[in-house]
Structures are given as C-alpha cells and as structure tokens.
Amino acid sequence: MGLWLLLIVSLSARAQSAPAPAQGKPPGGIQVKDLGGGYVGNTVCRACHPAQWQTFYKNPHFKSIAAASTPALAGCEGCHGPGKNHVEAGGGKTTIPRAFSLMEPRQALDTCLNCHAKDFSRVNIRRSQHTLSDVACNNCHSIHKSPVLKFLLAKQQMELCYGCHPSVRAQFSMPFKHRLNEGFMQCSDCHNPHGTFAATWRSGMRPRMVEQASGNEEACLKCHSDKRGPFQFEHAAVRVEGCETCHIPHGSTNAKLLRRPAVFAVCLECHNGAGSFGRQADGITTQSGSHNMFDPRYQKCTICHVRIHGSNSDQRFLR
Amino acid sequence: MKKRTFQLAFLAVLTYPLQAQQVGGARGQDINGYNVINSFETGYRFSSIEGDLGKYRSDVNFRNGIRLLGSSLTVNSKDGKGRLFDELTLQTSGLGNDPYESSILRIQKNRWYRYDMLWRMNEYYNPGIPIANGQHLLDTRRRLQDHDLILLPQSKFKFRLGYTRNSQDGPALSTIQLFDGRGDEFPLFTNVRRERNEYRAGGDFEFAGVRLHWLQGWDYFKEDTVDRVDSLSAGNNPGDRITLSRFYRAEPYHGSTPFSRVNLRTERKYFAVNGRLAYAGGRRSFIMDEAAIGTNRFGAAQNRQIVVGGNARRPVTTGDFSLSVLPSTRLSVTNATSISSARIDGDAVYREFSNASLQGTTVQFRFLGIHTITNMTDAQYRVSDRLRLYTGYHFSTREIRSIESDGDPPFAPSVSTGLQENRQHAGLFGIRLKPLKPVTVTLDGEVGRADTPFLPISDKNYHALGGRVQIKQKSLLLSAAYREKYNTNSASFSSHSSRGRNYSFDASWASSAKFALDAGYSKMHLDTVSGIAFFGAGALLANNSYYVSNLHSLNVGARVAPHKRAEFYGGYSMTKDLGGSKFALRAADPAAALLNPVQAFPLSFQSPVARVSVLVRGKLRWNFSWQYYRYNEDFGLFGIKQDYRAHTGYTSLLWAF
C-alpha cells in the first residue's frame, strides 16, 4: 500500500505546493480591494479565518476556488456573499450577507440550490418532507467541520437520521434488521433525504422519501433482485401494495422482518375471503378446504408455498 | 486540528456497535503538493456463544479470527490542481472474513472526472426456524458493487457511466410439496446462484437555466439455482406413505430490465418546474425441469416430471410533473402530479408427466395491470420567525385490472377477469413553533380515506398524528416525540383495526472533549385485530386475529477521556417486547388452540458494550472492545426457543500517519 501511495503521489505531484495560509490574529488594517459588487476575494477571508482556510483544500467546495471562478461563485463569498461590509466592520456575523446560522431554512436552501440544484437527486427538494418540515441543508450538512469523508455530513449518516427519527434507531437495534448499524448499509441506500417522486406502489402517496430502483420500482428490488420478477404468477399484493404489506423494512422482532411472528397470521389476515378486496373485489381467496389449521403442518404456509413472492410454474406458488 | 481529528475519529467509534473504526490522531503528511493521511487497524476478533448458534449467526454473526478491521487513506491536492487527481479516498471495513465487509473508493480531478466505487459483502445466515422449521435455511454471501464515473462534473455538459453488480450465492435449504394436494413436504438442498449486472450511461445538459438529465440503463438478471435430493426421504410427516428417493430441479431464469429516465427542470426566482419520464421494461424467460421419484400417498411408485417454459414481461411507465410557486420568502406552494402504469403479463406452457405418461399440456396466461394517478398539493407559510404552517391535500386514483387463465392438468384451464378501482384522499397539516430560541415544537397530522383498498389490512380510514419538542442549548440536546397511526378497514365479513403509538425521548450532551453522553428511549405500541377465515377440521371458521406488542427500546452511551492518552466508552442497548393483554378465546372456541398462542411475543435483546482506546506512541493506538449479546424469548412459538448469549469483541492496533 505504501509503495502504491508513493507511486500515485509522485505521478500526480505538481512542483508547486499550495500557498501557505496566513496565520495569527486578524490584522487591524486590512487593505480591501473591491473586486466589484462588494466582493473582496478569498485571500482577504483567510487573513482572519485561518482555521477554516487551513484544511479547506479538502473541502469539496474548494473546487470553486481551484477552478478560479468569479468571486460570486467561488469559495467563501460564493456561499456567504460579498464580504466588503464584513471586513470593514471588523467582523461579526450580522455583517455577513449570508450567515447560515442566522438564516431562515428557506434562505439556506435557496442559497445552496444556487449551485446544487443541478443534481438530479435533488430535483424534488422543494416538495420533500424535510423541506416542508423546515429541515434545511445545514441541519444535516456541516460545511466547515464535517467529520465524514463524503457529502460534508455533520455526523455519520445514520446518526444524523437517528437524531430526528429515534424510533428508527430502535428498529435497527432489534434482533432482525437490515445491517445499518453494522456499516453494511446506509439510510440513503433506500431513502433520498432530498425528496423523491411519488411511489409507484401502494397508492402513490406513501412512502414519501423512498428512492426508487431503476427509475420507478420499489427500492427493495435494488438488492433483492430475485424478488423483482416479472413472474408468470405474481403475488399481486407485492406489486400493488409493496413489500411492506408483509415486512417491516427497518427491523423487527420477527424472523424475516415479518409483521407477525407466526407466518399464518400474516397470510390469513388478508386471505380471509371478505368482500370488496382484491382484483376481482370478491375477496382474497381463503385457503383450500384440504388445509386443517389445527394441524401444525399447515401453520407454516411457506413450507409449501415456497415461491410466495412470485412463481413461474405454479399459480399457488408451490414451486 | 489534531485534537479535532482525534475527537471526530472517536465519534466514529461510537457510531457502530462492534465495528472497528479509525481511532487515533491521523495528522497526515504533505508530499509534493498532496496531503496524505493513512491508517490501518488490524487485530483479532473473538466470540464465545452459548445457546442457539443459528439465531446468533442470524442476528450478529461475528466470529473468531484476524481481521483488517479498518483502513483509511486520503490524499488531497493542496492547490486543487493535481496532475491525475485532486482527491483520493479509500476506506475499508471488516476485511478478512467479517460478516460485513466494505470498501469505498473515490478518485476525482476537479473539472475533469469523479469516480466512486462502493463494494460490500454480507455473509448472511438465517435458519428461519419459526418460518419453516429450519428447512428454509440460508447461508449465502451477497456481494454488491457500484461504480459511478462522472466526466466533466462541474460543467454544463456532464456524462455519466455506471455499473452495478449484485450477486448472491451459497448453500441453502428449501422444501417441495409432493405429489398432490394431500402430499407431504420434503426438504431440498439448494445451491443458490443469483447475479444481477446493471450498466448505465447518461448525462446532464444545461442551457438557459433549463436542465436536462437523461439516463439509460441495462439490467441483466440470471438465476441458476439448482435444487436436489439424492437420498431417500420420508418427508416431514413420516406417518404417511409418501417418500422421495430422488429429486432434481433446474430452473434457469434469465432476463433483462432496460430502463430509461429523462428529467427536465428549471429553478427560477418565483417558481420551479420539474418533469420526469421513466420507463423500465422487465422481461424474463424461464424454463423449469423438475423430476421427482418416490411413492405416492397410496404407497405406489410415483415418477413425476414437470416441464414449464415461458416468458413474463413487466413494462412500467411513469410520468411526473411538479410546479413549485415561490411568490415570496414566506410562502411556497407545490403541486405534483404522477402517473404510473404497470402491465405485468406472462404466459407459459405447463406439461406434466406421471409415470412416463403425459397428463396434459396447459397454456397459462396471466395479466395484471396497475394504473395510478396521484396529485399532491403542499403549501408552506412562514407566519413569523417563530411560527410556520404547512398544509397539503393529496389524492390518488388507482385501477387494477386482471385476466387469468390457469389450471394444472388434468383440469381444464379456467379464465377469470377482474377490475377494481380505489380512490384515496388525504389532508395534511403541520405547525412548527419556536417559542424560545433553543426550543422547537413541531406538530403534524394526516387524515386519509380510501374507498376500495386492495387488501383487508391496507389504509382505509386512517389518521396519523405526530409531535416533537426539541431543546438545543449549546452542547445539550433534548427531544421528546410522539407519533400515532390508527387505521380501520372494514368490509362485509371482515374488519381490521390497527393502532400504533410511538413515544421517544432522546438526550445528548457533550460537556467537554473529556465527556459525552448519548441516551434514547422509545416505546412502540402496536395492537391489531383482523378478521380471519380458515379451515379447521374440515369446517370453515371465521374469527379474529389479535396481535399486541409493547416494545421498549433503550440506548445509552457515554464516552470518557480522562487522559489525553486514554479513552473509554460504555454503552447499553436493550429491546424488550413486553407483549400485552391478550384477548383469550374461550377454550370451547375451536380457534382458541390456534389463535391464543400467537397474540403476544414477549422477548428481550440486550447488549452492553465497552471499549478502551490507549495511545501507545505518537502514531500507534491500542484498542479493545467487548460486547455482550443476550437474546431471550419468553414465548415458545411452535415449541421453539432460540435463546443465546454471546461475548464478542476485538483487540487491535491502529497505526495512523
């Protein structure tokens, strides 16, 4: 690894190193050159904010400086606005045109979207449940002090989500769960915190923050591709109402993340023959009269109905 | 900076229970214009299990052995003008036979490209005892890898290439029911082999403030799982005369799902428009060859072969359009309309041979069409800095149509058709209040009605209410939340009612770099009553299925760093289902024996954890972690108890430079 590292770095090195950041206390009489519109340039900012500047080259926003964009789009002033008044006032949050800690959630969102609206993953941010609940970008992202390597998150992703969704933390602590706490998964494998399009299952109204697979399929199918089908005989409940009909996706005390510990309870709560349900509105079929539910062998439905998610060979999902 | 990195690294340790994470003061070195930070944590993971090993492996699955518990490498160009790259990040976790392994790689050069890779492996073990007596055991490995390359990531013309691979393989068990409806069930050995490969190409284009995004994908799936039995089996019910001496089933199932996505959008000062068209056209071809040799329920020799071949298709087309109006900084209104159409149809030829004679050939056909139109309007208004309101109205209409033609030989196929429509309305509201600067209060609710839900347990007459109070004062964060969802769904012979209530309290406090506390408690209550119908001793019986769960969940963690060289972490997590009051059917009720035992399932799952991290030398740390798991069931579903206790942990050295 070490040799690899040396090789990579040697190949990629440039002779010039970055200019040394200014250190120490802010100088009293800073000479400010107005670059137009009240912009003063990043070099002025670094004189008083060396801590922010020192590691800013690791920040994804450093790209804007490296690309030598205009001050309105680059570095500190790209986000915080023209800094002339702030410098002339000798500092202070209130003199920063866009001080995020003082901004309304909507203002923070608008500011970030100036650049970040470009990404397809954020096209629904205006109508996302987070935005409607006043959760703005800086609630989850820490631009200057992010401890994680990607996306400038303020904490590890799941800790962020758990902060506002404590019952979800409880679900992922259950004996049966998706492996989030173990680091195998991330919340964003299934959810898009920036908002999603309407679901194509259930009635399209819920769930509201689940990212779809292949553009318009249920998120579970990203990994559980064997359940995806299409099958000759689909279990209609899966396609119409989705996997959550039988499973609790985050975590459960029941095997296979089922909603009930006993399999037959899961099945019989729908397969009760009551009218108005199902495709033909004449009830979802009851079990066969050959079954005797008092005999334990019939109480584990999926021992025989093994292809319960869908089958190509048997309408009763027996093979 | 060093201190900060150190604290953040330790935060990462607290994040994952028993997953080794970087701990230590990685300072980095400047080499030819790059800053390089590197760390390796390697050590020995141990485990000691008493009780049900299968359940332990299903829940936790850490085993003994030497591991590369974690590694991290970051290389950053200090002027953003590196020759080949400006950022290189490589992180690994659990390599060397942990059940959860992952690697993350990012390489990018400003303005030119960005490449992201994510590789994950999960060693999955599930005995499925309560589901199928352990006869649906899975001992498989799932490997996932995602590659994404963006060319010209900062330009108005971006190009994207992507590849995803998902494979699952390993031994498993399954079952087959033979030879007729009154037959027996036989366990099968299964060699799971599934693989999905997805290729993506697309891009983004921006002109005059209008952004176009397009993506074309090709998804290929294949499953070549083989099931077999090579020795005589008496089946699950040895009292009958049905036996299986040989069984073989090959069922190759291959196909593709090409998909396309186009999105057009623009953001202006007073409005934003967003439109999407997505199409996924799933196609699968299948053939099944199943041969079973044994004796039937009369004890006569039985040789049966089933051959099925056919195709299935599922084109799903989706269109979305949303308009956000932003007339002032106080008000935003969004209306979104979505149309989704899924058509699933499949046809197959089914042939069955019994004792070498053809029983018949059936052409099976099934169609399922699901069309949904959804319209959602949401508005948010900021009354003042302290008060914001939110309201919404959502509506959807769904039509489900089906045509089925099926039936196994020797019965003639039958055809049936069906049509069902459902309309759902929901009203939403929300309030966000800040009576004081550190206090935030949020209240929200939703009331919905559906006229013809698809399932007896689907949402019909429902409401969901929630509230949250959060107090944030410097390093102290306190929050309390309540959420409930009630649903009733009644039809002529059936009624379903569910009531879910969640209560949670959270607190976190970091008084200084030397002490931090994080604690949370949740109670999740659920009770449901559902009308069920089933056959028992030859009679059709109707009754109610009750289920009650009172889950208490507790998480506590405290970090103490009394000395700059040593840090301690102690934590405890507990999940406890206390069950609840059962609705006991009278013993005279024929359903009592079936339903009384499956109403409440009290259990507990506890896990204390302790960790120590000691700075040995400037770049070297020693870490030790211990975690205990105790799972205890206070019920015996189907006479099964899966209790276990396990001590797990690791000792490791972390070298950071």
Structural description of this entry:
The complex is a heterodimer of chains A (319) and B (657). Chain A has 319 residues and is mostly helical. Chain A folds into 3 domains: 29-101, no CATH class; 116-220, no CATH class; 229-311, no CATH class. In chain A, 27% of the residues lie in helices and 3% in strands. Chain A has a two-stranded antiparallel sheet. Chain A has a two-stranded antiparallel sheet with strand order 2-4. By secondary structure, chain B is mainly beta. Chain B has helices at residues 2-15, 53-59, 129-132, 592-595, and strands spanning 29-31, 34-51, 65-77, 87-95, 100-109, 113-126, 138-151, 157-178, 184-207, 210-223, 226-229, 243-250, 253-267, 271-295, 301-325, 331-354, 357-382, 387-406, 414-433, 439-450, 461-473, 476-490, 495-512, 515-536, 539-563, 566-577, 603-617, 620-633, 644-656. Chain B has a 29-stranded antiparallel beta sheet that branches. In chain B, a hairpin with a 5-residue loop joins strand 7 and strand 8. Chain B is globular, with a radius of gyration of 30 Å. Mean pLDDT of chain B is 90; it is low at 1-26. Chains A and B meet through helix 1, helix 4, helix 7, helix 10 and helix 11 of A and helix 1, strand 2, helix 2, strand 3 and strand 4 of B.
